[in-house]
Amino acid sequence: MSILCRRCLARQLLSRVHQGGSTRPLITGPPPTLPRHQTSTSTSTPLPYPTPLPTFETPSLIPEQKPLYVPGSQAERHARQGRMSSPLRRGTHESWWTAEMGFFNAVAKTIPTYRVLDEEGQPARGATIPEISRDEALAMYRTMTLIPIVDNVLYQSQRQGRISFYMQSSGEEAAIIGSAAGMLPNDEIFGQYREGGALLFRGFTLNALMAQCFGNVQDHGTKGRMMPIHYSAPEFGFHSITSPLATQMPQAAGAAYAIKLEEERQGDCVICYFGDGAASEGDFHAALGMNSVLGGPCIWFCRNNGFAISTPIIDQYAGDGIASRGPGYGLDTIRVDGNDALAVLSAVREARRRAVEGNKGVLVEAMTYRVGHHSTSDDSSKYRPAEEVKEWTVVDNPIHRFRAFLVFQGWWSEPEEKALLSKNKNEVLKAFSRAEKLPKPKLGEMFNDVWGVANGEEVPSVITEQRAELGRLLKKYGDVWEPWRKERKRFVEEGEDVMDCDGRGS
Ligand SMILES: Cc1ncc(C[n+]2csc(CCOP(=O)(O)OP(=O)(O)O)c2C)c(N)n1
Ligand SMILES: [Mg+2]
């Protein structure tokens, strides 16, 4: 059977209905009339204007209704907490009776995008610059400028076969660092996979980052068992990155709920990053539903970068972005210019305040653009023109915008810029060559920690058998088969640790 794209399959199925003698007309229009991603102005093409809100007249005085609460029910508790005021129906907030039939397709006519700096990095008219010291701003800038250098070195090294995989975050530096700067050190971070910068901002060293990407003996978080960029750093409150999309979201909802319940963690918060594509997963809804009902301080931070691999947002959703979904879950929500580091910082600080004070979730949608390819397994020139990418790097470059602000404040100069870039480059290259020379962990590490075994319990036979089999194969071929002879040398103890007889290992 040939593999068909979704649209072709739908067309084929619909035409079958047609040919089958059914009088039912096609329910979708032919492809040319479907909204297409405009290549030159893709992400700036406005989505269809939302249907205006019905002109419901709010009654000036809502007559006192007898609440429909069952005594002791959740609805009654909520009503007592002020979450519902005199609802006519349980599950609504402030509904009233109306004789006017009106459908609606938006909670606000348009969701505005909050910004502090304009494209030139100058304060936008009427904007309040968030409180920020020179040191804080420069700490943000240092990490923002580090990201593209780390990205370039590791991206190129994957191309040369020196690491197995990489994902860049260029274009999203302001969204990632602005949000990280808006959180406090004790807060928990659940990343999707493009948030290595947030970890660097917290103090994760370049050596540790490179160790994970090379999976060498100093990769303490994942011990060489994960693909590059799947960082795990409990000491920085950074939870393990896992590739299956949106799985971090229910985990974050659980962590936020745990904080709510844990006396010692009062005042702490969770930030959960996810992409515009991940928001189409069921886990997105499961997580937001759980968080809105159970509570717990959590910032749901959407990096809306225009793409989910090759799927542009216009093919991802038909509503008003991801922000429109927040009120559906009863979450305070803001849309922010994700390329404006100060706006992101300011929005996340306020989101954090609301989340902690209200013990609840807050949704932040940061509008940005994925400048790099999706990953080293992707070639974005196949689905978007190079000019579009170039335009974003020139016209709305998050690093340039923030630098212009620093210069405007009198906090930054050309010589300082040159010195920083050269220092960043040297440090990245040094950490890179160091990590490449270090050996990989003991081969037997691949069997450890993959199964939750309580202290004193036996490792399940499926693990010991596989370990023993590898040991047997290594004994037989490890010295005589050239690829293995060479490969063994890269590991601490050269695989000797798995060559014991029962597969139990150390
Ligand atoms: C459950 C699941 N489905 C599909 C994939 C393949 N996949 C990896 S990344 C990705 C796109 C995600 O896009 P988005 O959430 O917008 O994040 P971005 O890459 O743009 O940062 C897809 C479909 C996956 N990893 N997991
Ligand atoms: Mg995306």
UniProtKB/TrEMBL annotation:
Superkingdom assignment: Eukaryota
GO biological process entries: branched-chain amino acid catabolic process
Oxidoreductase in keyword set: yes
SUPFAM superfamilies: Thiamin diphosphate-binding fold (THDP-binding) (SSF52518)
Cofactor(s) demanded: thiamine diphosphate
EC number of this enzyme: 1.2.4.4
Disordered: annotated span: 19-50
GO molecular function, one term: branched-chain 2-oxo acid dehydrogenase activity
A Pfam entry, by short name: E1_dh
Transmembrane domains' residue ranges: none
Protein family membership: Belongs to the BCKDHA family.
Function: The branched-chain alpha-keto dehydrogenase complex catalyzes the overall conversion of alpha-keto acids to acyl-CoA and CO(2). It contains multiple copies of three enzymatic components: branched-chain alpha-keto acid decarboxylase (E1), lipoamide acyltransferase (E2) and lipoamide dehydrogenase (E3).
Protein's name according to its UniProt entry: 2-oxoisovalerate dehydrogenase subunit alpha
Species for this entry: Naematelia encephala
Lineage summary: Eukaryota, Fungi, Dikarya, Basidiomycota, Agaricomycotina
